[in-house]
Amino acid sequence: MRVTISRKAHFNAAHRLHRKDWTFEKNDAVFGKCNNANFHGHNYGLTVSVTGKIDPETGFVLDVKVLADIILEEVEIPFDHKNLNLDVPEFQDLNPTAENIAVVIWNKIRKRIQPDFDLEIVLNETDRNFVTYKGE
What we know:
Zn(2+) binds at residues 15, 40, 42. Keywords: Lyase, Metal-binding, Queuosine biosynthesis, Zinc. This is 6-carboxy-5,6,7,8-tetrahydropterin synthase. Pathway: Purine metabolism; 7-cyano-7-deazaguanine biosynthesis. By secondary structure, the protein is of the alpha+beta class. It has helices spanning 24-31, 64-79, 84-87, 98-110, and strands at 2-15, 40-53, 82-83, 118-124, 130-133. A 5-stranded mixed sheet has the order 3-1-2-4-5. Strand 4 and strand 5 form a beta hairpin. The longest helix has 16 residues, at 64-79.
């Protein structure tokens, strides 16, 4: 019997969608307002879900407090109130699109979750735009 537990979190961050190897015109055509040279921000919503077997001793798939601490350490502290392009090493050479942010978060959390558990990340960039990543 496999059960999914989920934990919600949020962080506020600025970013700019921009490729250094493209001209201003191409960046503007592809990324529009999101290519603002002065950056722009989002109030990101994050849902982290872990699926696995219930531990018969504890009754937990994973202690939600443990999951909350992982999210705090791997996402909230390094991303919250930061400029993703300038302050977060993972985005020095990676365009911080919602898709890429979700994959980076998944990779950071995956290292801390048992390998036999499934992991899913849902990242809300706005109330209407979100991405889901479950690994490869």
